[in-house]
Write a structure and sequence with these properties.
single chain; about 375 residues; alpha+beta; Alpha-D-Glucose-1,6-Bisphosphate, Chain A, domain 4; 2 domains; 5 helices; globular
Amino acid sequence: MSVSKRSKPLEVTLLPSPTSSSISPRGPVASYQEAEADLPLDVLEQLWKPEYLERLAHSYWRWLRRTSLGMLRIVYHPHSRTIVLLSERLPLLRFRRPEYVTAGLGQVTWRIEKGLLVARAGRGRGYLRLTIRQVGPGRRAETRRVHLRAEVSNFYPFLRGSGIFARIGVFVYTFTQLKIHELVTRGFLRSLARLDLPPSPVGALRDPADPAEPIEPAEPAGPPRRRGLSVRFEAPCEAPREELWSLLARPDRWREWAPHVRGASGLGSPEVTEGKRGRASLIGFEIVPATVLGVVPGRSWTWRVGPLELTHAVEPAPSGCLSVIEVHSRGLAGRLAAAAYAPAVWALNRNLARVAARSSSATS
């Protein structure tokens, strides 16, 4: 039995990170991110197979590559997995091959061997682990709740340093590597709402006698994803979807949530129109070319500005809606531009959600 394509993603709820002590100038550190989701019983029946645990593990590496815009790559060897920065000459983290537990739960563990981000004292001591387990019935009929946990434990960060430098190093590590890891991992947990779990290139848990049935990922809200790499930014919004869409799709309202944007010409009126080519005004300067590539009314639209493509979307959420901006890039120039623009997109998307909520409450 296969699962037909779903029209909307699952509901994934991020949980508060477990309370932990502050980072110490010495000793190991740990980080945990958790989420829960309600899965239809027929989907759960298909997912609860060893092969899909391996797919979950592979989807984590793919998410890391996408969110880094290809700057981080995963190098597979028979006895190791290595995260490298652009080249194998820059190995950030090297893990032993994964260890799987499939009895009663799903768990995959990568034990950390070494790497540029690992202090000498921590070589061969820490691990990265993903765990999924069933915890009870879901909120709706014919569903069951699963709990997902991503953790790094017993890790000795190189950035923390040692001796008298460790006090400053704690601050550096906390607000760089640790913060990035938390944001990336929480984004990964959210991304599981689409159940986009591609086959692993290794296939260690694949059973030829009982192949896993394909599960169609949830249909995306916008046009089909183009070639290249993408990074996705999400912001929960309490405003009605219509208000958020108005702010996204009407160029005359962009300045309400993007202070650096002064408007646009030639992209459509009152809303952006597919196929239109024009200019976007940025604090008195014009950026060319700007082309609207596709529009799904009320849901999403995509445009190209220089080496980047951006998709703006409104997606359903358990409470209110979700503001989504995806940055697509191709080639080295596109990746560098996307990396430079990403922090601004993250901040603008959050501001957009706040402005939409404030605007809707003012008119209600």
